[in-house]
Amino acid sequence: MIRANKHFKKLQSSYLFYNIAMRVNAFQKANPTAKIIRLGIGDVTQPLPPVCIEAFHKAADEQSAPETFRGYGPSEGYAFLREVVAGIDFRSRGANIDPDEIFISDGSKCDCGNFQELFSTDSIAAIPDPVYPVYLDTNVMAGRTGVYKEGRYEGVVYLPCTAENRFIPSLPDQTVDLIYLCSPNNPTGSVMDRENLNRWVSFARESQALILFDAAYADFIREDDLPRSIFEIEGAQEVAVEFRSFSKMAGFTGTRCAYTVVPKACMAYDENGDAISVRDLWMRRQTTKFNGVSYPVQRAAEAAFSERGRDQVRGLTDYYLENAKIVRMAMAELGFETAGGVNSPYIWINTGQDDWSFFDRLLQKASVVTTPGSGFGNNGVGFIRISAFNSRENVITAMERISQIA
Ligand code: MLT
Fold first, then answer.
1. What residue segments make up the domains of the chain, in order of their start?
2. Probe target for ligand 1 pocket from 41, 369, 376, with the most ligand atoms within 8 Å of CB
3. Within 10 A of 276 (CB to CB), how many other CB atoms are there?
4. For a pocket test of ligand 1, which of 20, 105, 186 has the largest count of ligand atoms closer than 8 A to its C-beta?
5. Distance (Å, rounded) from C-alpha 331 to C-alpha 399?
6. Which atom of ligand 1 is nearest to the CA of 40?
7. What fold characterizes domain 53-306?
8. Residue 61 has pLDDT above 90, yes or no
9. pLDDT tens for residues 218-277?
10. Which CATH architecture has domain 6-47+308-405?
């Protein structure tokens, strides 16, 4: 008899954004003329930068001639892309990352979900609350947690992120093995400064733990003194892995391209305490389970790093940051406490009431979709997240509609 993975039974009924999509579809069916504005899931709306489109077309044409055709590429990605990533995203900021420490993939969600596979199931995971649900759910699926009780999985060390700590996780008062950090943060929009990151890197070094650092929104940081990468922090290369994405910065949510940085110095340990290269483990995993990202997509991603590409990417992220400012100011004017929305496309709003009821009210009365904070964890109860990923016109209309009913 084929038996199901018993750990899936511990999961909450459905993935947060799937659950929201079902409610929105039901609302649209019942109200076919409603013009819904989606500020829920962080999905981009603006087209790819023109340089990426040009590179995409050119690479597609190359696939049409035998002399330039390419079959399987390296599963860790083509050197042309890994080299520009290392130079522009890291070395130019003083982080000494080599191209062969970079693994190109089809998404950060997959990478940050898959990475935990490399570690023993009795590793203790420290996970912020609220948090992007993928970190927690993939650890549950792997059997790294106990059952779910009162909004908490047994065996997980939760790191509360509240207004009191400015939504920046504090160090736990026990040892942990696998630490998830996200900056700029999804969902709170908070950004960790050098001092915060230094503290976490020192903690990880002392306890031989590993930090999984999700920096998918790094390109939204505008303040120069804020780190964009954990590898700008001394000593991080031995204890951290970083996830980056082209999704939000260059509009690749439907095109799919991301990368993960696994430094050669980064180690995990066997049962005798002997060090094992995390990069070798990830290489082994990827070469077994992944065949790389398509050649045209990698050429399009490479183009985002050209001079014109960087200007166009900056234009895109500026556009969404201006949307974020409009949302932040409109919600503050209505009297709500807000966080994020600066150096981040997400605005975290304290509704002062039940967040699912508030979500439903915005949907029913304003046809605006947001994300209820409790879907991100216990500390999200009473909050909603508004995403700045939409057209300027829709963001302005959504705020006008909300101000009429809030
Ligand atoms: C979000 O809305 O949190 C993100 O779009 C989800 C994702 O990137 O997978």
1. 6-47+308-405, 53-306
2. 41
3. 12
4. 186
5. 8
6. 2
7. Aspartate Aminotransferase; domain 2 (3.40.640)
8. yes
9. 999 999 999 999 999 999 999 999 999 999 999 999 999 999 999 999 999 999 999 999
10. Alpha-Beta Complex (3.90)
